[in-house]
Specification:
This protein is of the alpha/beta class and 239 residues long. 36% of the residues lie in helices and 13% in strands. The protein has ten helices and six strands. It has a six-stranded parallel β-sheet, with helices on both faces. α8 (189-200) links the parallel β5 and β6. It is globular.
Amino acid sequence: MHSKSTYVLVPGAGGEAWGWHLVVPLLRSAGHEVIAPDLPASDDSAGLGAYSDIVADAIGSRSKVVIVAASMGAYPATMVCERTDVASLVLVAPMIPAPGETPGEWWTATGQVDAERDLAIREGRNPDAPFDPVTMFLHDLPPEVLEDALAHGGPKQSSRPFADRWPLAAWPDVPTRVIAGLRDRLFPFEFLRSLSLRRLDIEPERLDSGHLVALARPRELVELLLNGNEGRVPRRRPG
């Protein structure tokens, strides 16, 4: 039996807690408290500071929380680690920031653009085709989850926070884990593995999933959260 923990689930771009809706009941049924805030993704006045404020406010006075952040959610999640009592940080298919780097700069600075294009070519997809969310994000969802996702509609994401620089001078002094999807088309596995090793000196844990791990493999993700390693504080500064 696992001791009770508080899991704080931070969404990626689009800011919708709905992306965690298959994970939340699994964690609660295992006896844990779960907090899954929405972020103001459609608000053109809200930057990374506002995102981290919302997460910190949702945590309140709780201590020893486990923050699980998806994709772009790594930016506000790491910022919250400087303000609250965090036991560990779990990054799922994440953007891994470097000091002073904006989310807008991240794509070219990390090599993501070339990695995404190269994978499309290897898989026989047209790298210059118009963006298709099913092809990029929903391709590995179970049929019933795909149907729900299409009915739910795509989230809106303002460009505002992509201009904000990551304000931390170094990675938070918090045990950190990285979980990567082997079938991720946005952050191809070898790209994300290389980035994680380069910036954090952390070997990612692997799931047979695309980018939306919490929708594609919720049970496997929860199993990793509950039974995976404890993480480690990166020895290197990102960069």
